[in-house]
Design a protein that fits this description.
Structural class: mainly alpha
Radius of gyration: 25 Å
Strand content: under 5%
Helix content: 40-55%
Number of helices: 26
Low-confidence stretches: 1-5, 8-55
Mean pLDDT: 90
Length: 594
C-alpha cells in the first residue's frame, strides 16, 4: 500500500479517536529533520502543511499506476538485512515474528524453513473443544485456536488455514452451528489438514462437511417434487461457484476479467440450477432417517454427510464448459463428476491463488505475480494440478513477495485485527494470567467476543462473504484494493486501541493483579526495559520485530526524542517502553504489513 495514500485513509479514521485516548506524542509522517543522537538517517514525509495526509489525497490517479511515492522508511543499517528479510517473511507466513523465529528462519533459509513448516504435524482444535466443551459453549473452540496460533510450531499451516477459513466460510452466528462447537472445530481442523494438500480434495471435504451442509443448506437438499412444491436448494451450488472456485467472471491467468471492456459471466443461473440438482440426496450421518429432527450428539456434525439415493435427482445435468453429467449417476458419482468439472475450470487457480496472495502478502498483487502463482497451481512441476503446498511456497518465495516493497508504493496489506493481536502476544511472550487456567484473554474482551472489539474472530463472519470483500477498494469505485479496511471502523478502532492501552499499562509483567483481573494475558516488557538503556537498541527491536524494517524515519525520530525526556533510571525506561509501545501499536504505519 502507498505509504502516503493508504496511511491517509487510515488517519482519516484514526484521528477521530483522539478524544478517546490519553494526551501524548503524535506520530505521523512529518519530516522531523535529521536524527541527532540517533544512528538512523532522516527522510521527508508528505501531506498537508503539518505532515498529515488530507482527504483530498485519497483520489486515485488517472489511468491507474501507483497511488503515491514510496513510504519513507528507517535506514536498516542498524539491523542485519537478513534479519529484516526473515522478519518480513514471518509477517506473511505466521501470526507474527519473534526474535527466536527470526533466528530460525535466518539459519534455515527461506525455502528450507517453508519445507519444514509444511512437514510439521497439524495442531488441532477439536480434541480440546471436545474435552472442555459440552458442544454448546463456543469459548473453548476460541481458546484452543488462540493457543495454537500463539504457541504451536506449525505457524505456516495455521496462517494458511485461517486464510482458507476466510474463503470457504462458515460461521457459528448460525444458531444450529453455535450449539455444535465440536463440528465447528472439526471444520477448522479439516481446513488445517488440507492446507498443504490438493485443492480438489479440499473442495470435496468442504462439500461433504455437515457444518457446511448446515451453513449453506445443502444437507437434506431434495430433488424436485412438483406436487409438494419442492425445488433443489441453490444456496451451496451458487456459492461453490462464486466464492469457492471460479468467481463471477471469466478470468485470464493474470486475474483479469475477460474481455476487459465487458467481462463475461463465468456461469449462468441455469447452471446454478443444474448444480443444485447435483447436490441433492445428502443427509447427516448417524441419524435414523431423512426426516428426523433428533440429530443426536455432536458427532453428527463431525462426520461427513452420507448419501440417500431416494432424494437424489438422477437426470443428466449441463455443467461448466459444455460438460454434461450423464443420467443415472448415483449421489456420490454425480458429486464427483461435478467437482471434477469445477476443478478443471481455468478460473479456479486464479481465484484461489489471488485470494491467498491477498491474505498472506499483498492486497494488490501485480498481474505478473498472480500469473506466476497460477502457473504453479495448474502444474506444480510434476504434473499435479491444485497442489496447495506448492502454491503457498510459490506465493511466499516469489520475487514480488520478497522485493515488491522496494519499488511498489501499493505493495502490502493491512494487518488483520486478530493477526495484530496475536503478533503482540507472540512478540512479548504473552502469558495467561495467574487465575486464567492457561486461557488467554484480552483486557476488555474474552476470546470468544474479540469480534465485538475488532470486527473479526475466527469463523464468526457475518455471512458467507467473510468479514470483508477481497475486492473492497480504498476509494469507492476505485481500483486499489484494501479488503481489511472494510472493517476498520471508528468503533472497532476505538475499542481495539483502548484494549491495547489497558494491555500495555495495566497487564504487564510488573502489574499487581491482586486488584485487577487475574485472568487477563500478561505481556513481558522487561526485555524492552533493558534495551531502553540505549534508545537506539529499543527502536531497532521495534523496527525489526514489529515493523519488519519499515518503521518511518520520522516516527523513529519522534520516539527517540520523546524517550530522551523520560530519564535513564528504571522508572524512566519503563515509562519509555510503555509509552512508545502503545503509540506504535495504534499508529497507522503499524497497521501496514509491507
Amino acid at each position: 500500500m502507498s505509504g502516503r495514500w493508504l496511511i491517509g485513509a487510515l488517519l482519516s479514521v484514526i484521528l477521530v479517536l483522539n478524544g478517546c485516548s490519553d494526551g501524548g506524542v503524535v506520530i505521523d509522517n512529518a519530516d522531523s529533520g535529521s536524527n541527532p543522537g540517533s544512528s538512523s538517517g532522516g527522510s521527508s514525509g508528505s501531506g498537508n502543511g503539518d505532515g498529515t495526509p488530507t482527504g483530498g489525497d485519497l483520489s486515485e490517479p488517472d489511468g491507474g499506476g501507483p497511488t503515491g511515492e514510496l513510504p519513507p522508511v528507517t535506514s536498516v543499517s542498524n539491523l542485519d538485512p537478513d534479519d529484516v528479510e526473515a522478519s518480513r517473511l514471518l509477517a506473511q507466513a505466521t501470526f507474527g515474528a519473534t526474535l527466536a523465529d527470526i533466528a530460525t528462519v535466518k539459519e534455515s533459509g527461506f525455502e528450507e524453513w517453508i519445507d519444514e513448516q509444511i512437514s510439521l504435524p497439524v495442531s488441532l482444535t477439536e480434541p480440546y473443544t471436545r474435552a472442555n466443551s459440552n458442544g454448546s459453549s463456543g469459548a473453548e473452540r476460541h481458546e484452543v485456536w488462540w493457543n495454537n496460533v500463539l504457541e504451536q510450531p506449525d505457524q505456516l499451516r495455521q496462517r494458511v488455514a485461517f486464510a482458507l477459513s476466510e474463503i470457504f466460510v462458515v460461521s457459528d452466528l448460525d444458531y444450529l452451528l453455535a450449539n455444535n462447537q465440536w463440528g465447528m472445530a472439526s471444520y477448522y481442523d479439516m481446513l488445517s489438514r488440507n492446507a498443504f494438500g490438493n485443492y480438489r480434495d479440499l473442495l470435496e471435504d468442504v462439500t461433504l462437511h455437515p457444518v457446511m451442509g448446515v451453513f449453506l443448506s445443502m444437507v437434506r437438499n431434495e430433488k424436485a417434487n412438483v406436487e409438494e412444491n419442492i425445488r433443489p436448494d441453490e444456496n451451496y451450488a451458487r456459492e461453490v461457484l462464486q466464492l469457492f472456485s471460479i468467481g463471477l467472471y471469466e478470468l485470464n491467468n493474470r486475474g483479469e476479467a475477460l474481455p476487459l471492456a465487458s467481462p463475461v459471466p463465468a456461469y449462468s443461473q441455469d447452471q446454478v440450477e443444474e448444480f443444485a440438482r447435483v447436490f441433492t440426496g445428502w443427509n447427516y450421518d448417524l441419524v435414523t432417517s431423512w426426516e428426523t429432527i433428533n440429530l443426536g450428539g455432536g458427532d453428527t456434525f463431525t462426520t461427513p454427510m452420507v448419501p440417500d439415493e431416494r432424494f437424489h435427482d438422477t437426470g443428466s445435468k449441463n455443467l461448466l464448459n459444455g460438460a454434461v453429467a450423464p443420467a443415472g449417476l448415483n449421489v456420490r458419482e454425480d458429486m464427483a463428476f461435478a467437482l471434477d468439472n469445477i476443478f478443471q475450470h481455468a478460473n479456479v487457480g486464479v481465484l484461489i491463488s489471488k485470494q491467498l496472495i491477498q491474505r498472506l502478502v499483498t492486497s494488490n498483487p501485480t498481474p505478473d505475480y498472480v500469473e506466476r502463482v497460477v502457473t504453479v497451481f495448474n502444474d506444480n512441476g510434476a504434473g499435479e494440478r491444485g497442489d496447495l503446498a506448492a502454491v503457498v511456497k510459490a506465493i511466499l518465495l516469489d520475487d514480488e513477495a520478497r522485493n515488491g516493497y522496494l519499488d511498489n508504493p501499493d505493495f502490502g496489506k493491512l494487518r488483520e485485527p486478530v493477526v495484530r493481536l496475536a503478533h503482540l502476544w507472540r512478540a512479548l511472550d504473552g502469558t495467561p494470567g495467574p487465575l486464567a487456567d492457561d486461557v488467554h484473554n484480552t483486557p476488555d474482551f474474552t476470546l470468544n467476543r474479540v469480534d465485538e472489539m475488532t470486527g473479526q474472530e475466527v469463523m464468526q463472519a457475518p455471512s458467507v462473504f467473510n468479514f470483508f470483500d477481497p475486492d473492497h477498494p480504498v476509494v469507492p469505485s476505485g481500483t486499489t484494493l484494501s479488503p481489511e479496511l472494510q472493517i476498520m471502523t471508528e468503533a472497532n478502532l476505538a475499542a481495539t486501541h483502548n484494549n491495547y492501552h489497558h494491555q500495555v499499562y495495566r497487564f504487564n509483567d510488573r502489574s499487581d493483579l491482586s486488584d485487577d483481573n487475574p485472568r487477563v494475558t500478561v505481556i513481558n516488557l522487561q526485555p524492552l526495559v533493558d534495551l531502553a538503556a540505549d534508545p537506539d537498541k529499543l527502536l531497532d527491536w521495534y523496527n525489526l520485530v514489529l515493523f519488519g524494517g519499515s518503521m518511518p524515519d520520522t516516527m523513529r525520530q519522534t520516539l527517540f526524542d520523546y524517550i530522551g525526556n523520560l530519564g535513564s533510571d528504571d522508572a524512566g525506561r519503563f515509562a519509555a517502553v510503555q509509552d512508545s509501545l502503545f503509540m506504535l501499536l495504534v499508529a497507522p504505519q503499524y497497521h501496514l504489513q509491507r
